[in-house]
Prior knowledge:
Blueprint: H1 2-9, H2 19-35, H3 41-60, H4 73-113, E1 121-122, H5 123-140, E2 144-151, H6 154-161, H7 163-179, E3 187-191, E4 194-200, H8 204-220, E5 223-224, E6 229-230, E7 234-240, H9 248-264, E8 270-273, E9 281-284
Helix pairs in contact: 2-3, 2-4, 3-4, 5-9, 6-7
Amino acid sequence: MAFFIQQFTLPLFVLSDNFETELLLLVVPTAVVLVFDPNDRMPRYILSLIAIVLLFLAKTIPAQDPILALTDANARAAYLCVVLVLVLASVALTDFYLVDLHSIDKSSRKLIHEDLLTETTNSQTIYKQADELYYQALRKDASLSAVVIDVDDFRQINEMHGRTTGDHVLVHIAKLLNENLPQGTPIGRLHADVFVILLKETAQTDAMQVAEQLKIAVCRSVILLEHTAVKRTASLGISSRHESCSSGSQLIDDAYLAAKNAKKRGKNKILSLSSRSKSSLNYKDYDKTS
């Protein structure tokens, strides 16, 4: 509100008799500011200055009845300086408004949609994405799979090395997932040490291959810290869209159930949930030394 009040009152300090012209000189640069990204300051200022000068010259030089009777070069220069100072003040103030709003909006979106530690999608948003992708797949009769990655013995890391080390491990796992998946693959942190990925147009067989790749990547990676090195494995669960699945949220829950069963069966394993029943699991084990 303060910004708009400023935009309509500043012209009165230049020439009240020509309110429309002075208002235009202030509003046009502001519009230019709004066109550019908040981070592109230099192009905005340059284009604003060009717009200011062109508008001023167009109004004062050709007009038979100029907005101000300028008798000499000094008066013309003084008037132009007054206009430029006021407009630049308006543009600068608008710039600060936009940068602040952009920063607040970015931070708010990050808080709402992202897990701040791992910079992956948080659980609420990943469930929402899963539902959206599920209904898209349903309309197109396309495949959709969810893979849940549950880090083995994560509690021991926190107990033996502290929560800071545990946080480093989670960040490392999230980085591994990003490095081993195509760009744009939805990756979320469900809670604590559990991550999930959503694989569009991916059947269960192909999801198994992706899960194996991720399992091997986690197993082979070593997290080097200041005073220690940590190596972990992970248990993975897979669920793909089938007739008895009613939503993307259920798809994630089914994959989570499969991951928990994989952990119960000895850890460092991959299990896929059968399309027939939640109690029926297709078991597929991988060499722990891989």
